[in-house]
């Protein structure tokens, strides 16, 4: 990747933002309430980073995110993320979440158990609530116990989470027979 910058790009759910640096993507922003609000949020998150045309690798990431939000089953695993400044625990949570394929969901408790302690469910939820890479780290695919949506820190909250899951044709977690919506 080249010098750092940020850009906005259109998707089926509204204008998203993406910021990059020399080692990969440093942040992705789901739509706020319109392009101006998304741009303002990116400027607050990355005050020292200029808005500029994205280099080819970032353009490819934008196209993959756009395709996912259009309903194509993309896992976005090819997008390199720069985890500098992200705690080790949050990085581990994000790496587990990145393995959830489109159309599937897991619970906070399942991720906590995979990390070695089911008691970490709240910490997993907090880590996902601070996810700087949504939807590349697909926190929308992580549900509360019983298949409930749980929280979602993006604009629109749980409604946006459910909308993204509907776009992906999500099914409930393994063994759960309750519909998601």
Plain-language structure description:
With 181 residues, this protein is of the alpha+beta class. The protein folds into two domains: 5-69, Double Stranded RNA Binding Domain (2-Layer Sandwich); 88-168, Arc Repressor Mutant, subunit A. It is built from six helices and five strands. The protein has helices at residues 35-45, 56-69, 88-98, 108-114, 121-129, 157-168; strands spanning 5-9, 16-21, 24-29, 106-107, 142-143. The strands form two sheets. It has a three-stranded antiparallel sheet, with helices on both faces. Strands 4-5 form a two-stranded parallel sheet. Strand 1 (5-9) and strand 2 (16-21) form a beta hairpin. Helix 4 (108-114) packs across helix 5 (121-129). The longest helix has 14 residues, at 56-69. The protein is globular, with a radius of gyration of 16 Å. The termini are far apart. The mean pLDDT is 91.
